[in-house]
Amino acid sequence: MNVVLAADVFGVELKEVLAADLRSRGWDVVDLSPEPVEDGVEAAVLVARAVQASDESLGIVCDAYGVESYLAATKMKGMVAAALSDERTAHMTREHNDARVICLGAQIVGSELARNIVFGFLTGTYSGGRHQARVDMLKMMGSIEAGEVGR
Description:
Layout: E1 2-7, H1 12-24, E2 28-31, H2 40-53, E3 57-63, H3 67-73, E4 81-84, H4 87-97, E5 101-105, H5 111-123, H6 132-141
Helix pairs in contact: 1-5, 2-3, 4-5
């Protein structure tokens, strides 16, 4: 499983902390913004494109509040994303919503909480079943193809 990360100028420090932690735990990390991108929308598009291109990838976007990147990611066709600030929701968004991207606000969560959120997200497993109808609806809502957005 690859973990794809990107950040804007407000999330770059948190992204670096998370990337180092993930590598130390043996995860394959792909940093799509070695230099921070201009804004959270751009970071979200980078991550969403990469995750859509590989069923073996999950994504993490770091910006100031997690909302900007969340709004952008959920506009991408077939993408389910979540803006998170607690561990329980991180696990549940994978288990019940099959989210493949999470968006974290560096000015909302500290590095320790962010590590816990990421761990919950990455170790969660989609349970399917009664949740599938909701997931199908969520995936139909995005209208932008991955190649249609960018600078």
